[in-house]
Amino acid sequence: MTTDAPDTEELLRRTGAGDPSARQQLLARHRDRLRRMVAVRLDPRLAPRVDPSDVVQEALMVADRKLGAYLKERPVPFYPWLRRLAWEHLVKLHERHVLARKRTVLREEPGILALPEDSAVLLAQRLAGDGSSPSHGLVRKEQRDRVRSALARLSPADREVLELRYLEQLSTADIAGVLEIGEGAVKMRHRRALDRLSRLLTGEGGDQS
After folding, report:
1. What is the mean pLDDT of the chain?
2. pTM of the predicted model as reported, rounded to 2 decimal places
């Protein structure tokens, strides 16, 4: 890691010491990751009026206000904390514009935001593998459709860990922070989800939902 791109821990240390430049770098460092998360979770019905970048900007503004309190306690790793702020804002937008009702959401719960159609297809594509040969296009589509069908039969908890890993492309440590469980538990849940998915694809697994 070069001095031009200090890692998150170093930026947190410098921010805590009162370095305003480090504070700005810290908040900007994960902007693209947050935008990717929002983009794959955003309900298509919100797309005409909500841009993922606006959701991220709002989350970062909230993070800036709450950063002092976060630095005192460090309850979870930094990115999962940022992601939670973006998630909560996204849920509020969904409730305001789609559900037209108000509800307080303090932490992420599977099923609050259904995965949009395009994101479900992308998840199935990544799990099925995406070769580049045009001659295998039909085979790839059939495989993707089978994976997508199997994903729909998994439990919300199993789908959640696969979404975090393959859609948001989070590390084991970040998934642990998001789910508030240990890294060992994340690895176990990930293996279990892949095993159940595999058994569903081979016709050996029953309905997991």
Report:
1. 84
2. 0.77
Kindly state the tokens that stand for 7.
């890692």
Tokens 């589509």 correspond to what residue?
A: 141
Domain 117-201 has what CATH class?
Answer: mainly alpha
With beta carbons less than 8 A apart as the criterion, state whether 76 and 66 touch: no
Residue 107, classed as helix, strand or coil, is coil
Q: Residue 140 — very low, low, confident or very high, per pLDDT cuts 50/70/90?
A: low
Contacts of 9 (CB under 8 A, 6+ apart): none
Q: What are phi and psi of 130, to 5 degrees?
A: -135, 80
Q: What is the mean pLDDT of the segment spanning 173-177? A: 94
- The architecture CATH gives domain 8-99: Orthogonal Bundle (1.10)
The residue type of 152 is: A
DSSP-H helix ranges across 95-182: 117-128, 137-153, 156-162, 172-179
Domain with CATH 1.10.1740.10 in the chain: 8-99
Residues 199, 202: Cα–Cα separation, whole Å: 5
